[in-house]
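Why predict the complex rather than its parts? Because the way molecules touch one another can change local conformation, and only a joint prediction can capture that. The input here totals 616 residues.
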Amino acid sequence: MDWHQLWTIISLPDNIPILGLMVVIPFYSWYAFRQAFANDRLIEQLEADPEMAKTHHRKTQPWQKGWAREVHVWPYLLRIEFLAAIIVTAILMVWSITLDAPLEEPANPTLTMNPSKAPWYFLGLQEMLVYFDPWIAGVVMPTLIIVGLIAIPYIDTNPLGNGYYTYKQRRFAIWTFLTGFIILWCTMVVIGTLIRGPGWMWFWPGQTWDHNKLVFEVNRDLHEVLGITDPIMYGIFGFIFVAGFCLVSAWAIHKLLTFNEFNRKILSRMTLLQYLTMQILLISMVALPAKMIARLLFRIKYVWVTPWFNV
Amino acid sequence: MADETTKTKDPGQSTDGSSGNGNGMLGIDSDAIKAMAADDIEALKKPTKTDLYKSIFRVKHDETPRSRTLGVLSNVFLHLHPAKINRDAVAYNYTWGMGGISFYLFWVLTWTGVLLMFYYHPTKVQAFRDILYLEHDVPFGKLLRNMHRWTAHAMVLTVWLHMYRVFLTGSYKKPRQFNWMVGVILLVLTLLLSFTGYLLPDDQLGFWAVTVGTNMARATPMLGHEGPFGIQMGMTAYNDVRFALLGGSIVDSNALLRAYIWHCVAIPGFAATFMIVHFWRIRKDGGISGPAPMMLEKEIKPLKR
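Output of the joint prediction:
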């Protein structure tokens, strides 16, 4: 256990936001789900008791008859904004006085930094470079993330859970988002920052970042594993394999979408276009962990090799 | 003039300032001056009654609903707020305040950024020296640079958390779909702002981070010289999308200048524009999304197609 190494990584000023990330994401997840479960309990109560549903104000916030439904922005909101600004300013002041922004030596194209890392919020994409070629990890995936995020409101046909925390009414949407945001984005950022050392190699926390470490991984393409040698044949094989993967994922996603009565009801509200868009986005999302498993467990580099691109 | 000075006047009425009543050595009544001064001092005890105050604020500062409402509506900085909001909407546990904090951080970044611009030249000769100068010689220069960098990191975090909250409360749903789209664009702009700023100190950290980042652009399908079908499209290192980003085939002086202009002029301009739309649409889409009354499953209306 190399405590010094661990401290060197953690105490790097530019890594403080990642430590912050590792605190605030679990905290706010807990904070949100505590409210979601409280709301879900009230929803169950209201569903069981139609009379109560008619009269209840349908919020978990405390409520007494005679209270005004609305409050003045001045002072009830503005004082909160003012207070928030003061607290944030105080935090920034303390942070800026105690920690100095990093400044390395002057830029030198002849001296490569090892590891050379992108800014921390892009380390998820850099980590993806291990599993995919740059045109997928650096261009196609970011585009799909942006397009996918924009598409969310237009493909989510579930009218429930609009403006309040809930888990029960939006299970599929919430699981999808948590997978994308927490597992595939935040975790990858944390791995890229804290785990990946010189040569972008995997160092467990506390392991020394050995600049001379060499790992002779025999990464093979899938067609090599299967013994297909003819370039045309393995090009065709790769296409069939990728198409097969898409079909199997689509089938699994469809199973989830029709998993229960509620999911089927929401699915029946989708147009064909909405359904296909959702399938394409979700298949791309599934492809990342699938490729990670293929790479980390089975040492497979590419599944589809062509003269123009590799997947 | 002679007529006026011969008139006898009550000292209290002479506050119109035309003249005194001609009794003193210089034709000034000292008692009247004293009384006028006393009046002025008395008036200062109620600053909100002065013409100066009224001309600036226009609205009385008291606890009547009318004044509270007008205080928000007639103020250019506050008028994006409604006069009244849902009593639960001010609860911290619903919004986490992350959108507002992100905006405040953008504001802090604008000011610290403008101050940094006074000391910074986006040239290969001077950029790095300017940072050293800021750190060692400029009064509070180090604090300024630290605050700009940490605020930028904090803003990335708060923007993510804001998106997380908006998703978990389902606030992107009808009628706020478009505002979610604007929000995603703002998220991307936030990341791009932070990324373009990374190169500006012109040190090893920024240089290699931007080298790694822009190397990915080489692999853009069809538009990058190492990407799928790039060669077939006639792409080389000197005409592809990476060349356009860097103004060259390597991260050098042109890249520094381009990063500077994107960072200080273009992207803040886009971001400010989209922010205006974002805030405007919050109001137009019915204000903050909740906490809204819960909807039950059996209340789902069949779709009209």
